[in-house]
Amino acid sequence: MKRQAEKKHTVAATRVETAQAVLPGHTNGMGTLFGGIVMQWIDVAAAIAAARHASGPVVTASMDRLHFLRPARVEEFVIVRAEVSYAAHSSMEVEVEVQTENPWTSERAVTTHAFLTFVAIDEQGRPRPVPALITETALERRRFREAAKRRAERLRERAHLARRPAHPKKKNG
Ligand SMILES: CC(C)(COP(=O)(O)OP(=O)(O)OC[C@H]1O[C@@H](n2cnc3c(N)ncnc32)[C@H](O)[C@@H]1OP(=O)(O)O)[C@@H](O)C(=O)NCCC(=O)NCCS
After folding, report:
1. 132 CA to centre of ligand 1 in angstroms
2. 44 CA from centroid of ligand 1 (Å)
3. Engineering a disulfide at 14: which of 28, 49, 66, 109 sits with its beta carbon 3.0 to 4.6 angstroms away?
4. Angle at CA 142, nearest 5°, toward 46 and 88?
5. For residue 121, what is the DSSP state?
6. Mean pLDDT, rounded, for 11-19
7. Ligand 1 cavity residues, CB under 6 Å
């Protein structure tokens, strides 16, 4: 029983893979997939991975290092793969890789990559603790160590943003 409970908190247990087809309504003026749509698909897949680890609701705290490496075209399939790479006290980092799949050849190519941070919340929307993440492979352990460094950078950025004054309201006329 204890073994089963532990298995639930492995990186593998958080893994999510979603598939979409690029439809004409998803595209920008160039006929390729609009970035905002990809960001939504990324956010949803990553939130499911984090919510699995947290066994409950989570909110997105940040999305960073978002790179669009190549476009996705109409009729291509878009595969979004997400997994929790790090868990701290109430927050978790999720790594997301997006690939296109050619429907004729099944060939895949990486199009987008991102890291997101989610915070597990209670009924009042306050942060609540999450279980420790169990890494099982050398790659997962390496990603965990790298994620710890990114977390430290993010927290520095957040503290910096919190100190910055808001832009003044634009005067009418
Ligand atoms: C995310 C949120 C719950 C954090 O609440 P808070 O009262 O500021 O809580 P804390 O400062 O104690 O931070 C809680 C955890 O979140 C992490 N965190 C908060 N903001 C973060 C950010 N911008 N990037 C990365 N981590 C962040 C903290 O490091 C902390 O992690 P830990 O508990 O693992 O050490 C709050 O800022 C919030 O509700 N933001 C809006 C979320 C939202 O609307 N998202 C979009 C829709 S889902």
Report:
1. 18
2. 17
3. 49
4. 55
5. B
6. 98
7. 59-62, 88-91, 117, 119, 121, 127, 154-155, 158
Task: Say how many Å lie between the CA of residue 47 and the centre of ligand 1.
Answer: 14
Measure 115 CA to ligand 1 centroid, in angstroms: 15
Three-class SS state of 33: strand
Tokens of 94: 């999720």
User: Which pair of structure tokens corresponds to residue 37?
Assistant: 């749509």
Atom of ligand 1 nearest to the CA of 91: 34
In ligand 1, the atom with minimum distance to the C-alpha of 158 is 23
Quick: pLDDT tens for 20-64: 999 999 999 999 999 999 999 999 999 999 999 999 999 999 999
| 2-163 to CATH, choices 3.10.129.10, 1.10.3720.10, 3.40.1160.10, 1.10.10.10 | 3.10.129.10
* Ordered alpha helix ranges (H), the chain: 2-7, 11-14, 35-54, 138-163
This model's pTM is above 0.90:
yes
Residue-wise pLDDT tens digits, 81-116 = 999 999 999 999 999 999 999 999 999 999 999 999
Q: Would you list the DSSP string of 77-100?
A: EEEEEEEEEEE-SSEEEEEEEEEE
